[in-house]
Amino acid sequence: MDEIVSQLSAHLENYPNDWERRLELAERYFSHDAHDEIAELFRQAPIPPVSQQQAHLAVELTAGGDLSGLNKVLSDFAAANNGDAWAHYVYARILTHQQHFDEARTEYALAVSLDGSKKDAKLEELLAVNDASDSAEMQPVKERAAEKFVGKTFMVALGDAAKPKAKAPDDKEKLRALIAAVLVHVVLLIAFAWVVVSAAPENPPLIEAVSVHSLDEDSLSQQRAKTLQSEVLQSADSRVAVNLDSLSSITAPDFNPQVESFGPVGLGSYGRSMSFSKGSGGGKVSFFGSKTRARRVVFVVDFSASMIGAKEKLMRQELTKSVKALPDTLEYAMIFFSGPAWYAGQQVGRAERIGKFIGNTVTDGRNRYIWYEGWDEKSRHSGSNKTALHHFADGAGRLPVGKYLRASGINIRNSLQVIEQTPLVFGTDWRWPLMMAMNMKPDVIYFMTDGAFGVGRGITKKEMIDNLLTYNRSHGNAKINTVCMQVLTARAELEQLALGSDGEFTLVRANGSVVRGVDLK
Known about the structure:
The structure is a single chain. It contains 16 helices and 18 strands. With about 525 residues, it is an alpha+beta fold. Helix 3 runs parallel beside helix 5 and helix 5 runs antiparallel to helix 6.
């Protein structure tokens, strides 16, 4: 299919428990409409997904295809997470779609016993009426006509459970029975769409997601349309009862799950991201109109409080656009900064007293990093000398270390929600985010800020930039493309940083237009 598919497949032969790579391969198959391959890929998984987010993505990638692989995945996941209400709930809904009603009732009852909030009136109705249908199996056929309205409940009997003694149905009766069968399958498929879009994981540990950009909304819609067209023609040896008022009005809402974080973007919880690229790999990158080619790129972006308003909105929009466009042969990281600096996905707190001094705490669920206010250790204060400058408590030689992410669909989606949700924080200090980026030895650094910064006593701004450029030359010598967000106070230093690293300076005007440094008067 392509080289990356081959290398991912080879990787899974050696490391079959690697669910991150298994899902990346499934995404590749999905982009080629290879649904049978996705089902087989999931059937071969020796262990269940390691998180709710991975299990939910497996559901999403199976939309429009063979459900046998997904059934195994969710069965294994529920068995491995017996105390997890969400696991049993989502498995119950998939079983309902597959018309395995007895098993579905068992899983649903367990989910509700673990978490009362999992009670689902629509699902209960489907399970209850089909339970009633099972018990009525031996009633005379004339009492269970092929189509019957009881209130607004549409009862349908299919299959050979009982043979009618009356004369063979005429053409009109056959037509009515066919319409009834088609309607039942359509309703079931709508119910499955409801399963896919609403069975979301719960209680994220790091990021409270508001939206996740799924694979491709047009592609998903096309896949569901194909499923609807094909499955209504399939026969079903079952009895189904559905409430038309509650299910016929169901539409598939925007995919909006809460997700469990894979860890900070750029810091990574799976170690160094693998690169499945051919040859030198990499690809094209663009940020605010500044274009380049790279194998590894780090975005260093100003999240200081001075960005609030139009600048913040423009920054988030452009960063989202750039990350979404990254080719999957490239590795990337994002570092955000104000006074403290942190890898995207870490949580940064507001300034507070930490021990004797004022500072900010950055956490990622496993580690805790302290950034004190002040140019250096001698400048720490207890509240009397408020400053935008910060320094790392453990010293410049022990700055937090980040790792790259490959630009896969999973990582990109995680990054986009982080860009949307990260708050602005007080302070501005250029040194640490740039040094953290240089320590990663990328090909290119994009450095975006809205301007002014300060320095400590005894050093000029030019000297600080010179020191940074010297540090860069001894740490991979990355090209630094600088972007000035509307405020020209620091134009000279941003141009110095770009020119000293063979990079490019770009100005973003108030109206959102960009001007390259060579074109500025």
